[in-house]
Amino acid sequence: MKRKVAVIGHGLMGRGIILSCATHGIEVVAIKRRVDDERLNEYIAHEKNKGKLTEEEYKEVMSNIHITCEINEVKNCELVIESINENLEMKKQVFTHLIEICPPDTILVSNTSSISIGDIAVDRLDKIAGMHFMSPVPVMKLVEIVKTNKTSDKTIEYVCNIARLINKIPIVVNDFPGFVVSRLVAVLVNEAASICMEGVANKEDIDTIAKLGMNLPIGPLSLADEVGIDIAVNVIDTMYKAFNNERYIVCPQLRKMKDDGNLGRKSGKGYYTYN
Question: Is a pLDDT exceeding 90 seen at residue 70?
Fold first, then answer.
């Protein structure tokens, strides 16, 4: 019998999570907000066109995905993964609705990268956790499994097993704003942006220095483009609200790029220009 999960959100992360689940034989109910949102279909077709999926694999993946705008269709899923915008009030609304419509044994998780899981949900906390996937989801192995002080061991065991099923490596962390990855990346990206703004080095050299000097697979400014400048700014802002520490004051260059709509790869321009 196939596992059946729901993923709410068709943004960059949501699409990657849906593809990763469907690729590994999981039936996915993919909840989108707008009827005319074709990003998921386009994304999976693009993966096939790039040679990352064969024609047979593409057909199998698509057969595992049911796309709908009806959030109530998550009721028959054993796991629901929320992956909408990094906005606390929006996430709380989604979780409040999920708690109302889902059976008591449904596991509910958030893919938030910075918001405390305990702030998102206020009921049924033994069944609620975080699954913080890395971008790009189909490539990156790590999933931070976030455990609150109310999350049951059974829930954590379940979500870790789901992560392993889709060929990820789960690492359990305690619920705290930013967890581990986002706190580290927020400081690195913000400092790289400040160095670039101050003219100490250009963007290419900053990224090269970080890769060669710190053995990173990708430079911090390239990473910001991949994740999305808007997401990077939102995460750093969340860290500042949580800790009131000046190391989390967003670099003005990053803030201006977000305000100007230069969001990185998804907009075609960030620190670098993309086709």
Answer: yes
C-alpha span between 24 and 21 (Å, rounded) = 5
Per-residue pLDDT band for 2 (boundaries 50, 70, 90) equals confident
Coil, helix or strand at residue 60: helix
Q: Which two tokens stand for residue 27?
A: 């039936």
Residue 220 has pLDDT above 80, yes or no: yes
Q: Widest CA span of the chain, in angstroms?
A: 58
Whole-angstrom distance, CA of residue 82 vs CA of residue 204: 35
Query: How many other CB atoms sit within 10 Å of the CB of residue 150?
Result: 16
Strands 79-82, 107-110: pairing is: parallel
Q: Which residues contact 79 (CB under 8 A, 6 or more apart)?
A: 3, 5, 6, 106, 107, 108, 109, 158, 159, 162
Of 146, 137, 154, the residue nearest 171 (C-alpha):
146
- Which pLDDT does position 136 carry in this prediction? 86
Phi-psi region of 272 (alpha: psi -120 to 50; beta: other; left: phi over 0): beta
The CB density around residue 107, as the number of other CB atoms within 10 Å, is 25
Check residue 122 and give its pLDDT.
83
DSSP secondary structure of 195-248? HHHHTSS-HHHHHHHHHHHH--SS-HHHHHHHH-HHHHHHHHHHHHHHH--GGG
Of 138, 134, 146, 143, residue with least CA distance to 227: 134
pTM: 0.92
